[in-house]
Amino acid sequence: MASVTGPSGSGPDLEALKAEALEAVGAAGDEAALEQARVAYLGRKAPLKELLSSLGAMAPEARREIGQRANAVAREIEEALRARAATLREQASGALAVTEAIDLTFPGIRPSVGHLHLVTLVAREIEEIFRGLGYDVARGPEVETDYYNFEALNIPKGHPARDGQDTFFIAGQEDVVLRTQTSPMQIHYMEANPPPLRVIIPGKVYRRDNDATHVPMFHQVEGLLVDEDVTVADLKGTLEYFAREMFGPERRIRLRPDYFPFTEPSLEVHVSCFICDGRGCRLCGMSGWIEILGSGMVHPNVLRAGGVDPERYTGFAFGLGIDRVAMLKYGVDDLRLFFENDLRMTRQF
Q1: pLDDT under 70 in the chain at which residues?
Q2: Domain total in the chain
Q3: Which of 244, 293, 300, 301 is the most buried if burial means most Cβ atoms within 10 Å?
Q4: Which domain holds residue 81?
Q5: Separation between Cα atoms, residue 290 and residue 254, nearest integer Å
């Protein structure tokens, strides 16, 4: 900014100062330049501000006249600054409208729509089937003590049934494990709920397995019913109803003797193949039947561990792999595909 002084050199020439300021404001091409002009002509060290600060030393008449003229010039410069700022904002808005204009005729980007995982879908379907039969749904801890995971289920230390469960133990805590089955919740639930009771317990379980049909973490659902005069006929009717609801109304089941420490008698449950309808195919190994779960009448020792009198009450229990049901229902031939996070797999369904 050039120094603009009056004829006597005693102070700024207000008219020349105003003209210079208005020219600088009009020439400002952006907000930064406009701010520089404001500081130069209205800032604390600007000649106009210095003049207003020196009015106190002038004679009263001169103070009044020069003060009025200086304030009028300041107001004109302020008004010019506001007008120029509005013009710059309008210009910027117009430029933005050109550079970021939306072409309403251009095809939009279709959002990707996902869906629930197959294991989740099957788990929810199983829950709904048993809710329809009056069962509660309960969930329990995935980290268990040895007592609940084994001993309370009639599997004492040294029992050979422990070898088949490939257990994960917690380091430094030999009596704490990742649960190998959802069965420990049978004991928890009986301890908290006196019979009669009906409950299913879905959840994650853990075993040291990893191949096409086994993974270290998988999903099970446990079923438990305890009441007076419960028989194998009640178990068979319940599981037959489940198989028809899950796999189709034409399905049949068959029971085969098996062994589980926590049930007596123990029964392996097969469902008629829903691909070949029992005639024999690759899925069922040409047998016409597919194994889907294990079951049996609750062992008296397990009832006692849950605080239930086995002289008065009986019950049945069953357990099935949710992942296996999903494999059968959707024709997936490798369990590991459920957990590899490959969207191509889930998009098929």
Answers
A1: 1-12, 95-101, 212-213
A2: 2
A3: 293
A4: 14-99
A5: 10
